[in-house]
Amino acid sequence: MPDHIHALIGMRPTQSLSDLMQDIKGSSSLWINKKRFVMGKFSWQEGYGAFSYGKSQIDNVVKYIKNQEKHHKKRDFAEEYMEFLKLFEVEFDERYVLKNPE
User: Cα–Cα distance between 85 and 15 in angstroms, integer?
Assistant: First the structure.
C-alpha cells in the first residue's frame, strides 16, 4: 500500500516491540533513501500499531496481508485501524490515532 504496511513478525520473548520497530523503521528508511525510491527524504510517521496473534491464526493473517489491497478498496487504512482497535478492545485517545493524509 502507498501509505502503510502490514507485516507479520515473529519476536523473541526478550525483545522489546519498541526496539524492534525502531530497527525496522530506521533500517528501511535508510535503505529507501539510499536507493532514492522517493523524491525528497523518506521517513515513517511517529508511532505504529501492533497486534498479537496465536499460532493457529497465522494462515489467516498471511491471507489478510496478501489481500490488503482488496481490503482497502472497501475501507481506507484509518477506518480499518480504528476497527482493529475496537475489535481488540484497545483503549485509545482519538487525538493520537493516525488520520488519513489530506
Answer: 23
Q: Which residues are CB-contacts of 17 (< 8 A; sequence separation ≥ 6)?
A: 11, 50
Q: Render pLDDT for 25-50 as a digit per residue (tens, 0 to 9).
A: 999 999 999 999 999 999 988 888 88
pTM of the model: 0.71
In this structure, is residue 36 part of a structural domain? yes
CA distances from 4 to 12, 14, 15, 76, 84 (A): 24, 27, 23, 11, 15
| 77 assigned to some structural domain | yes
* Coil/strand/helix, residue 91: coil
How large is the C-alpha radius of gyration of the chain?
15
2 is a domain residue = no
